[in-house]
Design brief:
The protein has a domain of about 160 residues. The chain contains 16 helices and four strands. Strands 1-2-4-3 form a four-stranded mixed sheet.
Length: about 400
């Protein structure tokens, strides 16, 4: 937002409770850094270092199966789900030091109900290619999220959660590949010293970033609520999740981060819905967060993003009003600006939403603010593409 005062003034259009204004001003503070990006860097995206190894993993998975390949490269798949296991010396030695798990008594493996159903792919998203693990079995999805995102701890996974982008997982296979290549080129040299000085500071050289997607109905919404057949809705749900997580990947790589916040979720849902529908369907978005009816649907996905510390009941209610207004303005933006599906066009759409705070999108004039930002970004990208 342009300033905290401006944001508070916009929030007062939705509530006269100053405590709620203060709460929401903190919650809706725009954390994205859109102005720091050079347009030229977005014209020709640099693929991440992990892709070379992942192309080989995909080839191996086509022969051996996805789970057989993943168990060899990801330490958490070699351990069960158990309380406090991440604090054990065996787990820490395997994950942080690369000690072979087959020599550790606690490494009894992660038990899945349908490991043969796992699908591994590389998806060309808006931020570039990224590995994707598709998990058809709902229970296996929960166990894999516990293992990969929560270090094998038995945390509760919200039933409305159907996807996650995971980063920062050590891949000791990639480290071993680098070691073998370096030692072949530098025989007799000190690999440990080289690793500490030249590799360890650059986490993208040895840590994986990837998506884990379920095949559940998106946000726990039933097909009949949207007037679709069950199979059509499952297909659409997977595509929405892909684009949703790719939006998070883009903000993570280029806009300074991703956050458990409804600004992030609005952007990501916008990208998913517009890819599937060709426009922003406000009814779909409101259904996804429990606001399709006149009153909030308890237990909906919106509760996963109520803030830390959690918003008060009064602030949570005003947040609902903000999101309804956002949906209306986004639908109007799509109707008037008719944005397209080409990569740079979609990039301009995403960055337009990221350049404005939640209240700037929601307040009167939000549609025009979006359109002005979108047209400016399209012009900037067009000039950069011409010069490149």
């Amino acid at each position: 937002m342009k300033s905290s005062k401006n944001g508070c003034d916009l929030l007062r259009r939705f509530t006269h409770n100053e405590r709620v204004v203060e709460e929401l001003a903190a919650y809706t503070r725009n954390r994205f850094s859109c102005k720091l990006i050079e347009a030229r860097s977005l014209i020709h995206l640099q693929e991440e270092p992990q892709l070379e190894a992942w192309e080989q993993y995909l080839a191996d998975a086509s022969r051996l199966g996805a789970y057989a390949v993943l168990k060899k490269i990801w330490v958490p798949l070699q351990f069960p789900i158990r309380k406090n296991i991440s604090q054990s010396s065996a787990y820490r030695r395997a994950s942080l030091q690369g000690k072979p798990a087959q020599h550790l008594a606690e490494a009894t493996g992660l038990t899945l109900a349908a490991p043969e159903e796992l699908e591994l792919r590389l998806y060309a998203g808006i931020a570039g290619k990224i590995p994707v693990l598709v998990v058809p079995h709902a229970g296996d999805f929960e166990r894999l999220i516990q293992a990969l995102a929560y270090k094998n701890e038995p945390v509760d996974i919200p039933p409305t959660m159907g996807a996650s982008i995971i980063k920062g997982l050590n891949n000791w296979d990639r480290i071993d590949r680098m070691r073998q290549q370096w030692q072949a080129q530098q025989p007799g040299k000190d690999w440990a010293a080289y690793f500490r000085q030249e590799i360890l500071p650059h986490k993208n050289l040895y840590q994986d970033k990837f998506m884990v997607l379920s095949k559940k109905p998106y946000s726990g919404v039933a097909a009949c609520q949207l007037g679709l057949s069950p199979q059509q809705w499952l297909d659409d749900s997977l595509h929405i999740r892909l684009e949703h997580e790719c939006a998070h990947d883009f903000t993570l790589r280029y806009l300074g981060g991703m956050y458990a916040n409804m600004h992030d979720e609005l952007i990501a849902d916008y990208m998913g819905i517009t890819r599937v529908r060709g426009y922003f369907d406000a009814h779909w978005f409101l259904s996804f967060i429990g606001l399709a009816g006149k009153t909030y649907r308890e237990g909906s996905r919106l509760e996963n993003y109520a803030g830390i510390p959690r918003l008060s009941a009064a602030a949570f209610e005003v947040l609902q009003s903000l999101l309804r207004a956002c949906a209306e303005n986004l639908a109007a933006f799509c109707h008037k600006a008719t944005p397209g599906q080409a990569r740079l066009d979609r990039m301009a759409q995403l960055m337009s939403l990221a350049s404005l705070s939640l209240e700037e999108i929601a307040a009167p004039g939000g549609e025009q603010r979006l359109r002005t930002s979108y047209e400016r970004l399209l012009h900037t990208f067009g000039q950069a593409a011409t010069r490149s």
